[in-house]
Design goal:
With 148 residues, this protein is mainly α. It has seven helices and four strands, in the order βααβααβααβα.
Length: 148
């Protein structure tokens, strides 16, 4: 089971040099990528990363599609990276999380990510923010993070 799951914000901050959290986020993800321990990125985080960094109303200038894809490809080259995706049984984890945490509106997106991590096995660490390097262990903590 992967030990760490960087959140979307960490991924964006590590890519965007104009972020105040760029250096810390980049170093953290680099440590994960070069580690001997497995680490994970849920597929939806890659889609969201691309959507955020290439969005001209979020960043001026926005990253080009080539820059965003190059960044994603560099993460995918990490030999210990595990990509998390929906599979049989995921629906049960997601529905349980929704019934327990009752997310409203766009908070379901974070719930989807948390459910993917939980479906893969309890994450040892899920980092929700580039500026918050604290970790959350276990199901209850992950669900709280997912519903913030």
């Amino acid at each position: 089971m992967p030990e760490h799951h960087p959140g979307n914000e960490s991924s964006v901050y590590s890519h965007r040099r104009d972020s105040e959290w760029h250096v810390a986020s980049r170093e953290t993800i680099q440590q994960l990528a070069e580690s001997r321990s497995p680490w994970a990125i849920p597929w939806p985080c890659l889609y969201e990363f691309y959507a955020v960094v290439t969005h001209p109303k979020i960043y001026d200038p926005a990253s080009t599609p080539e820059e965003a894809l190059d960044q994603i490809e560099s993460w995918l080259e990490s030999p210990r990276l595990v990509l998390l995706a929906e599979s049989t049984g995921y629906r049960n984890e997601l529905f349980d999380l929704i019934r327990t945490c009752r997310p409203l509106g766009p908070r379901i997106h974070d719930g989807r990510i948390a459910a993917l991590c939980l479906h893969a096995g309890e994450p040892a660490s899920l980092w929700p923010l580039g500026s918050d390097r604290g970790s959350a262990s276990g199901t209850a903590e992950t669900r709280r993070i997912a519903m913030r």
